[in-house]
Amino acid sequence: MNDQRPFAAEMPWPDFHARVKNGKTPILIPLGSMEQHGHHMPLHVDVLLPTEFSRRVAEQIGGLVSPTFNYGYKSQQKCGGGNHMPGTISLEGQTLVHQLRDVIKEFARHGGRSFAIVNGHYENSWFINEAVDLALRELRWDGIANVKVVVLSYWDFVNEETIAKIYPDGFPGWAVEHGGVLETSLMLALYPELVQLERAIDHPPATFPPYDVYPVKTEWTPASGTLSSPKQASREKGELMLAVCTDGIVKALRDEFSIN
Ligand code: ZN
Ligand code: MN
Questions:
Q1: Could you give the CA distance from residue 66 to residue 118 in angstroms, rounded to a whole number?
Q2: How many Å lie between the centroid of ligand 2 and the Cα of residue 46?
Q3: Catalytic annotation, pick one of 40, 44, 46, 52
Q4: Is the N end or the C end of the chain the one with fewer CB atoms within 10 Å?
């Protein structure tokens, strides 16, 4: 039996109902994207990582994990390589906003009052905020005014001390981490069978001018599709970030939802 797993969609409805109806159970909603992550990793990195963070966190705080959003907002050149890259399949902003708004409202209709949006794809950020705002507004119209939503991206929980350990040669910044040390290390720790490190392409961190151009100038994106080199990635670094981020998210949600 898998009744220990916190995935909402794996439960028969009476079990789901028992957990959700009183509004006490935090509901974690992971959001990802289908996006190229270089030659060495699959297209679902941004789906797998927030799903696993959500599972680990939910087990510690007694939460439930919603089905993950497998598609996200359009990849942007300076943080995801760009939507022109092969394998990157994206939603329009409005579609993502409406889907997430609907899902929050549906969980709330069944009793959910505490939500954590666990983002794994940077480009989703502002659309998440918009979806949450619309959901809260429309729930208020229905007389439901006690819903709280925490919005987070797991990498924001990597603290300075950990950054110094992971990037002894200097931190390139989260924007160019796409397919780099952070994501590759986490994948090596969690899903090593999906990483082909020998195919990783070593290159200096991508540099961009301080503006965007549309249509994108495809030559701005490194040919590999990664924005910094994954060569310094390791399973050990992945384990460290996994622990630091999981602990940080657990603490934040315990504080915000007054658990224990
Ligand atoms: Zn990614
Ligand atoms: Mn991404």
A1: 10
A2: 6
A3: 46
A4: N
